[in-house]
Write the structure tokens for this entry.
Amino acid sequence: MADIVIRLVLLGVVPGNRRPTTAMAWLLAIFLVPDAGLVLFLLFGNFRLKGRRVRELEDVNRRVREASSLLEGESEQLHLPVWLRSAIELNHRLGAQPLTTRNRVELIPGYLESIEAMTAAARGAKRYVNVEFYIMAYDSVTEPLFTALEEAAERGVEVRLLFDHIGTLRVRGYRRLLRRLKNSQIRWRRMLPVMPFSGQWRRPDLRNHRKIMVVDGEVAFTGSQNLTEPSYNNPKHRKAGRHWVELMARVEGPVVASLNVVFATDWLSETDESLEEQIVLPEAVDGHIPAQVVPSGPGFSQENNLRLFNTLIYSAQERVSICSPYFVPDDSLLYAITTAVQRGVHVELFVSEQGDQFLVHHAQRSYYQALLEAGVRIFLYKAPAVLHAKHFTVDDEVAVLGSSNMDMRSFSLNFEVSLMMVGPEIVSELRKVQEAYRATSRELTLEEWQERSVLSKYVDNVCRLSATLQ
């Protein structure tokens, strides 16, 4: 009798503020395996932050709006389509960050080259270096960067470093990283730590997935890459020749202050220390790329990244090119993409031929049929490489890159940061990167996909169901 009562109660509790597909997946798990399903729901069912973190985020956003008032109005001087102005206003309302002009942006598709560029910036630091990455590891590739950070701290530069606790813990060399940090003058913290014996507990799969580095408020880096060697220090990956393909951006100009605001918000959450004095505009640079930072995550209630992605794709008139290593869209994003094709827009998707995460990769594959039938061209980046870059372009107007995947985890569970850039110049530069992907990929056809085995279809569909458990 108690079992029946619990199920009836959960029928009215689980659907609250959840997508119907997510609620149905949780109810199915609870009804099929009641004990385990209920425990998992209690551990992972609530993805909204509460209490101090939310209050601090709201307070920081209020201050950002006030501090950024001098920047507002710059976009009025630009000749932008009405739909793009609407997207800019959406971003500003959701994430508090304005569009800034006169930025300089350099795309860095080379894995080692981006580490070298960040190392050079750290070596030239005079006042502070703020570093925030989902995964960090001390290894042969990152050693020069960590040495540069240590040397900067020793000469009086304020070096602050954040890494996601669980994300970094899973990578080989975690203890070595901690020893190195403890023996340095770098100020560091774990983000979203799960250490119940120290009184730090939260839903364990809420993660800070952002990648940001800011030096002196003058130059910043953001994109998809983590701070580790290209095979994530995994002997099996190295033996198989598997390496990660990334894209980072080096930026100068007022948008650097916007990225620093995102770091300052996370630093405040982990340390209670405000960095407001750092949030100032850098000296003018000879740049002309309008850019806007879009933070998103559990601290926001509106799924900022998903709303932006949908808005831009629905506004596309000619071409949309998407690169996402973990492409598991919700219904709204799937409809936006397939509707774009049906409106006559050329849509292409770059994904890895062989994924690095079993459940996500097979959940992703379950969407290929609908995409191919709609007319989306799918390019599979050849194995054993893992195409981990995250970006897309819309017509000749907009380029977006950052840490956010196009999956339900990035929309609801992860703290992410995206950089929206405007104009044909930056779109052209990003398309050169996409052309390089195409040269290293093979196109998947509907005929080929329909010939896959029954077992393969079954596994894909089961994994698709698990992807909605948020």
Q: What stands out?
A: The radius of gyration is 22 Å. Residues 255-271 form the longest helix (17 residues). The mean pLDDT is 88.
